[in-house]
Specification:
The protein is of the alpha+beta class. The protein has two domains: about 80 residues, Arc Repressor Mutant, subunit A, CATH 1.10.10; about 120 residues, 2-Layer Sandwich (Muramoyl-pentapeptide Carboxypeptidase, domain 2), CATH 3.30.1380.20. Helices cover about 40% and strands about 15% of the residues. The radius of gyration is 19 Å and the shape is globular.
Length: about 240
């Protein structure tokens, strides 16, 4: 089964988008409830997506479980790292952007790529209907939810002061960065533009961003966000969203 098969059938595509749109890994029972199908049907669809390479599995104990098998670890399904664009027919847009990168003058190149990424991030935020929050936690949760609503998985990890980590196995620009590592400047700008749109009083220029593991197709991308400008803590000011 190929990756394209995973989106070619409407039932598989629905399950695929459900998992990618979930903040955490899901069980077959949760997928069955969300998709309104029997548990065995949901499990069969998820397993087909695993065989296609677009989902991966793990096991963990879930609290609150009851009934048969309650003491055993649950099988969880989550998006697999995606280093290549999933499209048919191939539009080769990554190749076009890579060619455009060669045309950007060396003088001011880094700033130009960063600004392009920031504008792209703002565009994604607008498309997703992202609203700003005065809370760091709620704002970044909103950023991740916005990315998921566009079909790309992202989940908020640790927050320590004005530093936060976002886990994203299917970052929108990862296929471009994999082919042209210098495009990471665009990618970091994109996340800064998203953060600007999700956090009230924060500008993209004040957001420092690092991306890790993007070039390793077996690993999920780790996006480290640092805010040079201090904003309200999660329990300090209510969200404006």
């Amino acid at each position: 089964m190929s990756r394209l098969d995973a989106i070619g059938e409407s039932e598989l595509r629905e399950a695929f988008l459900y998992v990618r749109g979930s903040a955490a890994a899901v069980t077959a029972d949760e997928a069955a409830t969300a998709l309104a199908v029997h548990r065995s049907v949901a499990r069969a669809r998820l397993e087909r997506l695993v065989r296609a390479g677009v989902l991966e599995t793990s096991f963990a104990r879930r609290s609150g479980r009851s009934g048969p098998g309650a003491g055993r670890p649950a099988k969880l399904y989550s998006p697999a790292p995606e280093a290549e664009a999933l499209e048919f027919p191939p539009r080769r847009l990554s190749a076009l952007v890579a060619r455009l990168l060669d045309e950007v003058p060396a003088d001011g190149r880094e700033d130009a790529l960063r600004r392009a990424g920031e504008d792209f991030g703002r565009h994604l935020a607008e498309e997703a209907g992202l609203r700003p929050s005065a809370s760091v936690e709620k704002g970044l949760e909103g950023v991740c939810a916005a990315v998921r609503s566009l079909g790309f998985h992202a989940a908020l990890g640790r927050i320590e002061g004005d530093r936060a980590e976002i886990d994203t196995p299917t970052c929108p620009l990862r296929p471009l960065v994999t082919g042209r590592p210098e495009a990471a400047l665009i990618d970091r700008g994109m996340w800064a533009g998203l953060v600007e749109s999700g956090l009230a009083g924060v500008e993209a220029a004040s957001v420092e961003c690092e991306t890790h593991s993007c070039l390793d197709g077996r690993e999920s991308c780790a996006v480290v966000i640092r805010l040079r400008r201090r904003v309200a803590r999660p329990d300090a000011t209510p969200s404006t969203a």
